[in-house]
Amino acid sequence: VSDLSAHTESEDTCNDLVASGRDRKPNALVQVAVIDPHKQHLVSHACTEIVEANKDPLFLTGVTFPSEYPASPETLVKLTVYDAKDKSQESRSTLPIVNHLCFFCLGLQSTFLGSATFSVGDLLRAKDERLTLSLRSSDGVCAAGAVVVSRLKMGEMEEVDVDHITTDIPSHKVKAMVQYTFLPCLCLPLSVFKNPVCKVYRFQTVESKWMLVREQMEECTLSFSIPKQLLSLYIQEDMSRVQDLRELGELSPHWDNLRKEVMTRYGGIINSYQETLAELDKITGRSFKPSCCKAQKSLEFIPINLHTQRMRVTCPRKTDAFYDIVTVGAPAAHFQGFKCGGLQRLLSRYEAEKKSTAYQCIYYSPEHTAKAQEVLSTVSLLQPLITSLADQLLQAAQEHSSPGLRDALKNLSDKTEQLVHTLKDELVKSALLALHAARPGYVSKNQKQTPVQGGQHQGHIHQGSDQNQSPVQGLPDSIPHHKEYDEEEWDRVWANVAKCLNCVIAMVDKLQEEDNSKQEPLPEQQQLADVITSHNPGDWREQLHPPVTRLKECVMEVVEKAKRAMTFVLLQEAACSIPQGFFLQQRRDVVFSQALAALACGFVMRLYAGMQDKGFLRQLHLVGLVAQFESLLSTYSEEIGMLEDMEVGISDLQRVVFQITEAKTDDLSDLQPLVCGRRDHFTVEVPLPRLVFQTLPEEIRGGKPLRVFPVLFNVGINEQQTIAERFGDISLQERINQRNFEMLEAYYKSLSEKQPDVISLPCFQTQTDIKELLETLGQNVVTKKKKNVEILWIAGTICRRLNGIRFTSCKSAKDRTSMSVTLEQCALLRDEHQLSKDFFIRALDCMRREGCRIENVQKNIRCRKYAFNMLQLMAFPKCYRPPEGTYGKVDS
């Protein structure tokens, strides 16, 4: 009875079924319902797939009672066998009603054949944990066959052959075998994954043995928590940018007007993001965004239909295997639309236009603005760190600790040298000169008669002479003027930091030399006298205090100048961006938010799955993980804009690193991943319970940043892709696949340098060498072949072989994604677990008709039909077509 807290699953078979008509064989299904003990009425739970035109059907779909289901020994379960007929009638009005219960959602008429009822307690008490029950007709009088109910634990499944399952029974009778499996929950953190949907199947292997397969699909709380954290960081970063602009000081009227306009634009973004965040804070209890809400303004930062899916396989004489995948709608700005294209096209066009319209400001390339952001981020991080390390040095001097002094000095030297190296960049120097030229009344030596109100471009900014020369002559007293800017001043400022550091190092060496000279062996009495008359321990601190203080002052001065210079670069970039650049930044923020939520979900899932795998953990901290995004978008109409958004969003994930931390407590609230950083660099901290954290390698526990290498492969499969291939342009898809193949190849090269001594990759039955798979993938991405889905299959195989994270996307991760996920799962069963060829199509149809993916459709649009019509499916590759009766054009 204690096992009732775990998952419960069942499977069914029937023999010698008789249809209502003599000239046809029955289309059999078994429906499972639970009798509510309080209200005494049936509550539909699940049903098997339909086995068509077969008098001896063998059902592959089982029934799962999840752990949260209120089952007890007194729980009553009713099994009902039906003959589903008139398949052409798909109107929901034809659904059969039994005890006010709609039990079948495919729109088929059905004929009742027989039913049986049992309690869970009866099953647990039964000999060999198996019950044999009689099926009864609708009047409860006539016997209609027998039902065998058995209990089975996944992972402990016995070898069962077909003859055992389909034992002989009287002619024209029914037999259904129902297997209840009590399973432990998957080891996924409840703080992140919730609302599981479980399905179970049994499939036959090539050796006529039986494997047990279980799907579990879950929502991810990161769908909302990651975007909300990002919005807070966006607001914080933009408010900081506004403050930096205010602190630029007095500017000429031209630049001051630009500054005011830029600050107004930032203010608009801040207000918009604050409103969105307030709306998201009102939402409680939701863990996913349905596809019908993809264009909703208040939810634009939330990924569409984000779910995890895990397939667990139990085979005779083989260890259980797990296969994970994350499904999510393509990260794209649906609310903003795709009339003018997506991010990739818009950004390219924007950069070209910005160069031609940069007459009002100094144009900086994207590389320069990215460098400015990097310098700002680095100096903002290093300044407080250097100050803290300087204080630690003084504390070690106060304690008269030579080892502490050496350690603090080493850390201080490393960070100070890093700061100096950052500030030596020529961009900082040129930006300071540009800022000086933007001050009121600036006059260059070549323009002494007319004050310059800001340069037109970099070529218009002239370098001044020595700062000590005489004031500018020939100007009326009423015109403000000042000395020429000394461009060498900056070199002296940052060089002073290095000089101050050298002074600190020299003082520490001197103190330690003096201390060492006093440590020479002396008679015992003399040593005692020296201790009594020794210098006050505060002497070291007093001697170190002046050079350390000077170092801190120099660092403060150089950081302030550098921040103003880089802020001025970003002001110019923003001024050239009005208004299009701000709109694009908002679009990029939206797309990145969706992409990061999906990546964080996949990382957490992969981390927990590989917690006991030492080879995986070594790979994680030595090289990082590949995250392979599979996209099924077409390169036509709106979907080409979605793909352009997705390409940029996935590429931006290269700015993200992960860090494993020890949770403060084991409470669920303390196990939520946290995001910190700014747009040019984000860190996702993943807290683990203390006992779990202590098992990790020292490098990971030490906080080493863990990299993820995102790659994207796209192959359109629908009717719009047919139009694009015949009459349109598929160069975007070709470029994406070629570029990301090169990135995947580079990742494997870096990984192979660590193998096989350090990293061990997982073993698969298909022993094709990864290098050979890469060669095949490389050939496919350059081959001119329509709807070459082999690119996706090979890329997915390489990802799994490399211990990577798998993602699958289409517009809403509902229909095409479902076809891809089920195909991938059945291919894994075939290639890795010897699924019989005769069962491949049946298994595929079974998963698509009754599995987790049709439940996903139901969650999104409240209808159990994939949004395809017959004409669309004619354009699909055959293996991506759902079984009849599971599709129909619906609003999504």
UniProtKB/TrEMBL annotation:
* Renumbered residue ranges of the record's region Disordered: 444-480
Under Gene Ontology molecular function, one entry of this record is:
phosphatidylinositol-3,4-bisphosphate 4-phosphatase activity
Keyword annotations from UniProtKB, A to Z: Hydrolase, Lipid metabolism
Q: Which residues form a coiled coil?
A: none
Tell me where the signal peptide lies. Answer: none
Name one cellular component (GO) term. Answer: cytoplasm
Tagged with keyword Repeat: no
Per the record, the domain of life is Eukaryota
- The primary gene name is INPP4B
Indicate what this protein is called per its UniProt record.
Inositol polyphosphate-4-phosphatase type II B
